[in-house]
Amino acid sequence: MEVNINFFDNMSVLKTFSKLYKLSENEIMRLAIETSVADNPTVEFIRKSGIKLDTVDIRNVTLHCKHITTINDNFDSLKKYGLLTLDKALTYPTPLNRFLLEHDISMDIVNRDIYYNNRRIHIIESDEECEDCFYGSECQEFVDFMGKPTTLSYRNMACDYRDEINIIRSKLYHDKCEIEVHLMGSFKDVHEYSVVRNYPEILMTIENLIIKLFKEGTHLQRDWQAQQNNKYYCIDFDINIFDFEFITKGKKLDYSDYCDCFEYNVEPIYDMSSASANFFGNVFIIQKGLGILRHEEPTDYGQILPETEIKFENLEINEFYM
After folding, report:
1. Facing residues of 318 across strands?
2. Which terminus of the chain is more solvent-facing, meaning fewer CB atoms within 10 Å of its CB: N or C?
């Protein structure tokens, strides 16, 4: 039986809590209010409700997501590919890919290269030596008083090239190009997040990189907004809780949030490595759900695993105005 949790809707949270944890809605609200003054409201709610975290099966739990984006091709790309991870959006024949090519920018993500007007920006890791000095100076400026090369950690900050590639390296290689979504928050939290209702965030990253490295303006952000038929949308859809990067792996909340709940299991937990996905997922659901039920309006995000397929037919798309 699928259980959908919509953290944007108080009544939905109440009803799904009742279904998932086998408690009446009245009992849930009583405990939510009663435990709100406790030192640790989540732990106190779990203790008083008698929930055994490892026995509540969350395999069929889906979380409601919101994703803000701009679209200018009448959904053609979205219909063909569904929601794409960043690497695919940059390399497939999408509006974003075509837009960058029109501005003389191409991405070779596999080989870690960005080309601007046929000039190469190679994205090395912070612990790697440069293949060739970006400025052609072989790091002559970065030597210590003995004439020896300075450490990589120093050069990562002192060298403009090594410093400036840090953000795009994180987006493309460390964050797995995952689709980030809103899992809870107010209308303002969702719709005014970053720059995504105006243009893809990666355009700001690329434009800033080119300005810093080449001292040239590309006007990517301005030109994207000026495109004909460019509109912004909020896309709603549901994703299984196991298709998120951190929620069922014990990496979404603070370490202490999990440790405080170790005793509320059937099977004993001695450390994080012995805890189950059910345990981690239920701690997250209960902590965040209680905040919603108490009208605290928490804000949180989710990173969807890159192999997750998000088809067009499973999306609810609503247009908004800038």
Report:
1. 234
2. N
pTM (2 d.p.) = 0.92
Task: Evaluate whether 282 touches 56 at the Cβ level (below 8 Å).
Answer: yes
Paired tokens of 182? 């809103």
The answer to whether 235 and 322 are in contact (CB under 8 A) is no
* Short-list 126, 96, 93, 123, CA closest to 108: 123
Handedness of CA 65, 310, 205, 246 (dihedral sign): positive
Give the closest residue to 303 by CA, choosing from 215, 255, 239.
Answer: 239
Query: What is the residue-level pLDDT of the chain in tens, covering all 322 positions?
Result: 789 999 999 999 999 999 999 999 999 999 999 999 999 999 999 999 999 999 999 999 999 999 999 999 999 999 999 999 999 999 999 999 999 999 999 999 999 999 999 999 999 999 998 888 888 776 656 766 666 767 788 888 888 899 999 999 999 999 999 999 999 999 999 999 999 999 999 999 999 999 999 998 899 999 999 998 899 999 999 999 999 999 999 999 999 999 999 999 999 898 899 999 999 999 999 999 999 999 998 899 999 999 999 999 999 999 998 6
Three-state secondary structure call for residue 15: helix
Cβ contact 181:83 at 8 Å:
no
